Structure formats: C-alpha cells, structure tokens
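Technical annex, item 7. During the second reporting period the consortium partners agreed on a shared format for inverse folding records so that results from different sites could be compared directly. Each record opens with the tokenized structure and is followed by the designed sequence. A conforming record, contributed by the partner at site C, is shown below for reference.
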C-alpha cells in the first residue's frame, strides 16, 4: 500500500488588513477570535460563523486581549505599560475602560507590553519590551516577563529581555515555552502549575541551526506537544518539536510580517494567524496585515484559558 499523502493546508484571509495585528485569543465559548492592532490602538473581534469583524478604539496601544473568567464581556488588555480591565460587548466602538489592574516597568516609562497569555490556572503571564524609537529599532534589554496573580499582585520572572514573545505551556511535561525575539531562539523552563513559578531556562531551538531568517514571534502548542511559531520577517509559520529541537514543517503565509498564532474553531483544529502591514521602507500590500485561517493541519490545539481576577 502507498502511504497516505498529507493534504496541503488550506489558507484563507478572514479579516481585512490592519497595521499591526497581534495577540490572537480564541474564545471557545463564544466561538469568536479576539485580537489587537497595536498601532491602530484597536481591539478586534471576528466571528467565523457570520464573518462579522468589529473593532473598538482605545486610548493607548493595546497589545493583548483576554477574557476574564466568569465576567461576560470583560477582558484584560495590555495598554502601554498597564494591564487594564475593559468592558466590551463586541460591537463597533463601544469598549469602555473599567479599571487599572496593574502597572509595570515604572523604571522604563517608554516600555510597553507585548505578548501575554493566561497560564493553565488563569494567572496572567505578560512580557514587556523596550521603546521602538523608529520602525524595527528598539531600546534593547529593557523588557521583563511578569506573572500577575488573581489578587493583582505582580511578580517579575525574568528581566533583560529585548522583546517578550511566544508564551505557551505543556502541562503534561511541566514545561513553559518563551521567546526573547532578538535571541532568535526558543527557551524552555520547568513550570510548576501549583505556584506558577518557572525555573531552569534552556534553549531548545535556534533559528541559526535551521537557516531561518527573521525572528521568533507569537506561538502556540498542539496536543502532541509541538510548537507552532509565527516567523516574523519570514513569511511563514513553523511547526517545531521542542523536545528534539526539530523543524517539522514550514507553512508559507502571504505576508512578510507574521506575528502570532492560536488554534480555534469548533474542534480547535484550525490555526488563526495574525500579521502586520508595517511600512519599514517597503510598502506591505494586502493581504499583509490580514488575519488568516489555516485548515487541514491534522492537529488540534488546547482551549485558550481566560484570566482569573478577584
């Protein structure tokens, strides 16, 4: 018998382009995708069943949007150096600031948040980055990685970070994965689900070992324990086995600046991919900046976790 040939994944742009799409979060209860556009200062919602795409402008640069557990239409949003609570029904231009949950990096006032996710217990892991003083140029080693617990307490887990990116957990293997983008690598930490602590960082994947261009951006993990990584400035999504440092698959995306990924859909077997259309001396024409959906990957992700706040 001939071995079954794997079908090529199907790719579709599902939203119109934005400036800097980031932080996709699939809300499994609502069957909706939330994401942000940082420089447009907007939060976004996309509902696949209807194709409806709505947005709401905020007063500052939103970098992530994650639902709050048990509070319908309430979200934590990274806004510059603040974590804030937002109320938003998902309709155009109706978001309302409720309160500030936490402030970080007071010693680096030009910093901003970048990537963030809730860990398996709903604690918010959120990383910062230095000031971007011109497109693609940053104050380096100014960022940190924080854990914000349900009581609002802030814990600095790492410092001297260029750009915090790509947070995900493998509970079965007690692992936390993280990327500092300008290291061009992926780190693995030992993770304690009971305390939310991380320890013993080690490099498990290096771009240079595989001849990859661009940087490590957002990532997620499938139920097999493989990472799916947005390759910013690389026009692709990477599938990586972090246990052996293997590059398993490269999936082309019709946008240079691929920013992040998350699994979604009723069976969590679709991969949503955000992108950017930043002009850094070269115009990035549509579909650059769109959010894309990949079908037919023959893998599944885990449900995204909501943030727990008291």
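Designed sequence (site C submission):
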């Amino acid at each position: 018998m001939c071995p079954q040939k794997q079908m090529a994944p199907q790719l579709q742009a599902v939203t119109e382009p934005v400036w800097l799409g980031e932080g996709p979060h699939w809300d499994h209860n609502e069957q909706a995708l939330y994401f942000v556009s940082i420089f447009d200062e907007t939060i976004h919602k996309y509902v696949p069943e209807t194709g409806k795409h709505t947005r709401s402008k905020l007063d500052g640069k939103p970098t992530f949007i994650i639902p709050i557990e048990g509070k319908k239409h309430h979200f934590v949003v990274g806004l510059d150096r603040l974590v804030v609570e937002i109320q938003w029904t998902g309709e155009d231009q109706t978001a309302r600031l409720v309160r500030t949950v936490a402030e970080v990096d007071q010693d680096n006032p030009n910093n901003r948040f970048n990537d963030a996710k809730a860990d398996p217990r709903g604690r918010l892991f959120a990383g910062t980055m230095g000031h971007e003083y011109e497109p693609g140029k940053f104050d380096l080693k100014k960022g940190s990685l924080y854990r914000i617990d349900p009581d609002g307490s802030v814990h600095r887990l790492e410092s001297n970070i260029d750009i915090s990116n790509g947070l995900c957990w493998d509970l079965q293997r007690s692992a936390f994965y993280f990327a500092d983008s300008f290291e061009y690598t992926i780190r693995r930490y030992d993770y304690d689900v009971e305390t939310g602590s991380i320890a013993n960082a080690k490099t498990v994947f290096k771009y240079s070992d595989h001849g990859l261009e661009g940087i490590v951006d957002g990532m997620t993990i499938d139920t097999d324990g493989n990472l799916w990584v947005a390759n910013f400035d690389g026009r692709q999504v990477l599938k990586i086995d972090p246990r052996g440092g293997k590059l398993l698959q490269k999936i082309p995306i019709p946008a240079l600046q691929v920013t992040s990924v998350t699994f979604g859909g009723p069976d969590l077997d679709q991969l949503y991919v955000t992108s950017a259309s930043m002009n850094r001396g070269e115009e990035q024409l549509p579909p650059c900046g769109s959010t894309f959906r990949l079908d037919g990957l023959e893998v599944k992700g885990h449900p995204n976790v909501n943030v727990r706040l008291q």
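The two ends are 58 Å apart (CA to CA). The mean pLDDT is 96. All partners now use this format for quarterly exchanges.
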